[in-house]
Amino acid sequence: MEDLTDEERELAAMVRDFADSVVAPQSYEADRTHTLSMDVVGQMGDLGLFGLPFPEQYGGQGGDYLALGIAIEALGRVDQSIAITLEAGVSLGAMPVFRFGTEEQRQELLPDLLAGRALAGFGLTEPEAGSDAGATRTTARLDGDEWVIDGSKQFITNSGTPITRFVTVTAVTGSEGGRKEISTIIVPNGTAGFTVEAPYDKVGWNASDTHPLTFDGTRVPAENLLGQRGSGFRNFLSILDEGRIAIAALSTGAAEGCLEAAVDYAKSRTIFGSALSTRQNAQFTLARMRARVHTARLAWHHAARLRDGGQPFAEQAAIAKLVAGEAAMDNARDATQIFGGNGFMNEFPVARHYRDSKILEIGEGTTEVQLLVIARALGLAG
User: Which of 208, 267, 305, 328 could form a disulfide with 81 if both were Cys (CB 3.0 to 4.6 A apart)?
Assistant: First the structure.
């Protein structure tokens, strides 16, 4: 972390201490019982983590996206479920309101979100609209002074917690020139016709709150439109660009957590009369894992600093997510191999990282989507 300021180093140290002393001890049981600890969420709110990249006028910390990434990386070392709860709470919950909301919407919704007293989801993905988000089928039509929403969403994070306040939904609100007009609409939890379905039985991120959503004649006021009508597609693309930096930070943390665990285990594990860490094959594996962490961190730091400096960053965000996501998956595999049979036991963190890390190559844009973004930046549009 040589490129960090003293203040950024202090933030990293503070969150790492919180992760080690508060988050890590409850992670195994939370994963086993598929339970998101609202106490941990509340403590993250008390630390100001949900408000890191937002102005103080809304209850934020006045920081930037690099600060958010530092916190997410530190949490991702020990518990990806908690890290994604913060990432989604900021990038997908609060950020759309801050970026595209009216001043009235900001004043009403942001203070509780930034304090961790409330969470919000971002309803984008559908059964037939994942990477191809333009295939959105959920519809919203104006009926007097209300939007009437019909459709479904899937894989929506933070959508069914006890403190979830609303979800922001992308929906087709019309068409122009044969192209769908997609808008984003705020739907409060508890609205008639809006059902948060049973949680998924997932491979990983078991302590993260994730649900499918159903909308059946769901009515909300016309002023719940978030941003300009028809701007939903463009707006969510910009949200995903930022989110990819945050996911890259989470991935870097996961890769580092695997490295730290594998180094400690290799030093303490005796095999054929000597520590596993004295074996050259193990040393080379750990060295490659270290190189992956270093490269991933450089990539997401660069993208974050471009974003915070107001410069174009979409390509760099895609590179960061690609590199860091693969680093997390590769390090999880290698760490599990270092642990041998113990790596297959869920009581060891590397087993959880092995299950958790695959989604880092899928969520908020698959590896293939990142490659497409990078290829287009090279002028290879087809």
Answer: 208
Tell me which amino acid residue 242 is: E
Positions marked catalytic: 364
Measure the CA–CA gap between 1 and 5, rounded to whole angstroms. 9
The residue type of 131 is S
pLDDT of residue 283: 96
The helix (run of H) or strand (run of E) holding residue 214 is strand 210-221
DSSP-based three-state secondary structure for 54? coil
Distance CA 3, CA 194 (A): 46
Tell me, rounded to whole angstroms, the distance of Cα 101 from its chain centroid: 21
Phi, psi angles (nearest 5°) of residue 48 = 85, 15
Q: Which of 98, 119, 99 is nearest to 107 (CA)?
A: 98
pLDDT of residue 377: 95
How many other CB atoms are there within 10 angstroms of residue 103's CB atom?
7
Using CA atoms, how far residue 186 sits from 29, 139, 189, 206, 269, in Å, is 34, 14, 10, 27, 53
User: Which are the contacts of 273, defined by CB distance < 8 A and separation ≥ 6?
Assistant: none
Encoding tokens for residue 185? Answer: 């609409």
Compute the mean pLDDT over every residue in the chain, rounded to the nearest whole number. Answer: 95
The three-state secondary structure class of 235 is helix
pLDDT score, position 83: 98
Whether 80 shows a pLDDT value over 80: the answer reads: yes
Q: Are strands 146-157 and 139-143 parallel, antiparallel or unpaired?
A: antiparallel
